[in-house]
Structures are given as C-alpha cells and as structure tokens.
Design goal:
By secondary structure, the protein is of the alpha/beta class. It folds into three domains: about 45 residues; about 300 residues, Cupredoxins -  blue copper proteins (Immunoglobulin-like); about 100 residues, Cytochrome c-like domain (Cytochrome Bc1 Complex, Chain D, domain 2). About 25% of the residues lie in helices and about 30% in strands. The chain has ten helices and 23 strands. The strands form five sheets. Strands 1, 2, 3, 5, 7 and 11 form a six-stranded mixed beta sheet that branches. A six-stranded mixed beta sheet has the order 12-10-14-19-16-17. Helix 1 runs antiparallel to helix 2, helix 6 crosses helix 9 and helix 8 packs across helix 9. The longest helix has 21 residues. The radius of gyration is 29 Å and the shape is globular. The N and C termini lie far apart (about 80 Å). The N terminus is likely disordered.
C-alpha cells in the first residue's frame, strides 16, 4: 500500500508542476480526479495470498512483506490408520492427514479466510478452534463440518504469538486425543530475531485399549483418557518420530528456534533438551523473551512455548518431557543431531572410563508387555516380537543398527562375544553384567543392569539379534531361558 502511495504521489506532483507551467486548467481538472481515483483504488486493494502449510518438524517460511494481507488457509480433516509405535497402529483423526496437523503462519493484522474441508470418507463431523481467533469458540461453531462438506469463516489476526489449534467437536477430548491439533504462528509486525534453523514440535498423549507396546490396531480407551493415564506420550504423533534418520539437525555455531506446542489433551509438558540450555524462552507462546538461561520450561495442555538456543558442540542432543518416565517408557523422546568441529574448552568428551554404580539405573527401560501366546509362535512372529523388545529396551544403548557406542556400549552387530556363547548371552540378559569384557578386540568396562525381562522377551530379543547384522542365526527358546537360574 505504501508503495502505491509513493508512486501516485510522485505522479500527481509531476502533473501539478506540468499543468501549472502550461496553465492548462481544463486538462488539470480532468486528469487529477482520475489520478486521485487510482490512488484511492490502489490503496484499497489488499494483497491476497494462500498460506503455505508445513508438516512437522518443518516451519513455514518467514513472512517478509511489511503490510497486511488477506491470507487464505485451506485445511482438510481426514481419518487415517497410521503408525503409533513399532508394531502398533491407531486410527488417527487428523488435520491434513498428519499428527500434528500442518503449521500455519500468518502476520499480525492479516485477515485470515479459513476453509475447512471434511473428507467424504470421514465418519465424524469435525471443526477447528484456533486459539489465535478473537471470537466465540475460536471459530468452532462457524467451522462445524460434516463429512463431504466444506465450511468457511474469517478472522482478524489481532494478537501476535504462537497458538494451539484443535478440533472442538463433542466429545472434545476424544477428538483431541485422536490427533486433532497443531500450531498457528501469528508473526509479529516486528518479527523475532532471525535464527538459522526453526522446527515445529507438538507433544501429545494417546490412550489405547492395549498396554504400551501391545501390537496391532489399537482402539481409543475413554476410561484411561478420563483417568489421565496415557499409554503413549509422544512428539509429533508417534514413538520415534524424531529419532535417528528422522532427527532434526543443526551445525555447530547455528542458532535454533523450536516452536513447541502441547496438544494434550491432559498432561503438562516439562520440555527439556538434554545437553543444551535455552538462551531465550518466550513463555506460553508470547512474543517477549521473558526468561534467559532456562533448563526446563513448562508447556501447558493447549499451550505453547518458543525457545531459542545456540549449539556450540557436535553430538546428539535429546529432546524430552522431563517427567522422565514419559520419555523412556511412553515415547516422548526426540533427537537434534549437531554436526561440526569439537570444542574441548566447552565440552571435553569422555576423559575417564571407570565403573560407576548410582542408586538407580541411568536409563529406564521401555516396558513391552505381551500376553502369553495361545499357540506356539512362528519364527517370523518371534523375530517381530524380538524387534519390538530390542527397539524399546536395547536400542537406547546399543543403537538402532546394533553398532553400540564407541568406548561405552559394546556392539551387538557382528559381535564375537555374543556369538561365542549363547548360554552366556542368556545369563547377561537375565541377571545383568558389570566389569571388563572384550568385544571385537575392544575392552569395555561398564554396567548393564538387570532388565527384568520375561523369559519370552529374552528368548525373542536374543533370537532377533542373533538373526541380524551377520550374527550366527541362533534360535533361543523359552525353555533355554527358563533353565538359567
């Protein structure tokens, strides 16, 4: 708008000077109104653009325009079956086919036209309550949409900040618990300081009929939801959504901004990045950094936070809900992989390697409970079960591909120690191990706690490991495990 004002002002000025010189008042009177009309029309024109929606962990690009606009948002609700954890499926109710739904970015002062489309395959009506909306229900009543229909409403983005949106169709808690939430960022006119990387993360809970790790398609459990006793607490919709090859990334020296939401529906998050300190915290999604040098910040259910920090050393930083059993037993764990040159003045790495026995284990295992099989399992079923046990219990130390951690946790891939003695391997899993061992020519001096796995779990996970990564292909039976006292 200001661009047009300048252009038309300049043109009017030129015309006035020219007309005065020629003293041609008739032409002056005929042309000036046309120019003025063009000025009025151009000033009244609003820029129209369609919002770029992105899926976690991607954040929409910064809005660089300096004026308000009309922004059109198109979002679809669709019910899909997807992965909740390894071997576990769930029927998610979603915005945009993903959990969380797509992130929306608009600018303070924008007029937002919101179009909600409910896919014809949906079984339920859906709507949207955007916490950024000033108006009844955050748009919920205006957007109530039955399957196969579309609804439209508009709102003014009055208040900058980071806001949750969610479905608010009755029963509200069930729609949220099934995955219907996301973030909308109303970028302030004077945007936050620039950073090198931005990421989008939402924590939430899932309540399933089966216990944590129970395989197959799991239905929603209303009784557990009312009791606020989730089986899964996760980042971005599923266990492992932000680990290994799905981890977020940065380079040493870069600044990172995390837009973090909590879809709930029940629990408060104690958000923490292991190995980092938040340089700035924009509490509860506001636009003023009201705290610095923060270790852990609370994110209320239905709320958000923005955190900024600079990464100074390479390595894998672990993102957690520091209500820590949720992380290691229910799934709220992510990774930020940082590449670059070490800086030993900031962090030395390991300088000594000796046995240390604290009062409790440093890493809590992920429990996988499976009901006794009604009949003997096939080899394929045993391997599938063993993979789930390995991923939930063993991979935190021995890594996803069995490679271990150099100098700390020995490999189980191509392991001469493991392949030399099957009975010894059973004893290690059943009773734990401490002290020096040599694996593939490298000495390790550490502690493996007693994991309290069932006989079936030990047999399955050892069979799985023996049949992976060029190991000897042994089968371990429950009877062999049971025989070890």
């Amino acid at each position: 708008m200001f661009y047009y004002l300048i252009i038309y002002g300049y043109q009017i000025g030129k015309m006035v000077i020219k007309m005065n010189r020629k003293k041609n008042n008739n032409i002056f009177r005929s042309i000036v109104p046309i120019i003025l009309m063009g000025l009025i029309v151009s000033c009244g024109e609003a820029k129209i653009e369609e919002a770029k929606l992105t899926f976690a962990p991607e954040v929409p690009p910064e809005i660089t325009r300096s004026s308000e606009a009309k922004v059109i948002v198109n979002m679809e609700t669709v019910e899909v079956v997807g992965r909740l954890a390894d071997g576990v499926e769930y029927t998610f109710w979603t915005f945009g086919g993903s959990v969380p739904g797509p992130m929306v970015r608009v600018r303070e002062g924008d007029e937002v036209e919101f179009n909600l489309h409910n896919h014809p395959s949906s079984k339920m009506p859906h709507n949207i309550d955007l916490h950024a909306v000033t108006g009844p229900g955050g748009g919920a009543a205006a957007s109530l949409t039955v399957p196969g229909r579309s609804s439209k409403f508009s709102f003014k983005a009055l208040n900058p900040g980071l806001y949750i949106y969610h479905c608010a169709t009755s029963p509200v808690g069930m729609h949220i618990a099934n995955g219907m939430y996301g973030l909308i960022y109303v970028q302030p006119k004077n945007n936050l300081p620039k950073v090198d990387k931005e990421y989008y993360i939402v924590q939430s809970e899932f309540y399933t009929k089966g216990k944590h790790g129970a395989s197959g398609l799991q239905p929603f459990d209303m009784e557990k939801a009312v009791a606020e006793n989730p089986d899964y607490v996760v980042f971005n919709g599923s266990v492992g959504s932000m680990v290994e090859d799905r981890a977020i990334t940065a380079k040493v020296g870069e600044t990172v901004r995390l837009f973090v939401g909590n879809g709930g529906p029940n629990l408060i998050s104690s958000f923490h990045v292991i190995g980092e300190i938040f340089d700035k915290v924009y509490t509860e999604g506001g636009i003023k950094a009201n705290q610095e040098n923060v270790q852990t910040t609370l994110v209320p259910a239905g709320g958000s936070v923005i955190v900024d920090f600079k990464v100074d050393v390479p390595g894998t930083l672990i993102l957690v809900d520091h209500s820590i059993f949720r992380t290691f037993n229910k799934g709220s764990l992510g990774m930020l992989k940082v590449e670059g040159e070490p800086n030993e003045k900031i962090y030395s790495g390991k300088q000594e390697d000796i046995v240390y026995l604290p009062e409790g284990p440093a890493i809590q295992r992920m429990v996988t409970e499976v009901k006794p099989a009604a009949k003997a399992k096939s080899k394929e079923e045993i391997l599938e079960h063993g993979e789930r046990v390995y991923n939930s219990t063993c991979s935190a130390c021995h890594m996803k591909e069995g490679q271990g951690v150099a100098g700390v946790f020995p490999p189980v891939a191509k392991s001469d120690y493991l392949n030399a003695d099957k009975i010894r391997a059973i004893k290690v899993l059943k009773h734990g191990l401490s002290g020096k061992i040599t694996v593939n020519g490298v000495t390790y001096n550490n502690v493996m706690p007693e994991l309290e796995l069932s006989n079936e779990e030990i047999a399955s996970v050892l069979t799985y490991v023996y049949n992976k990564w060029d190991n000897k292909g042994f089968t371990v039976t429950e009877d062999e495990v049971r025989a070890i006292k």
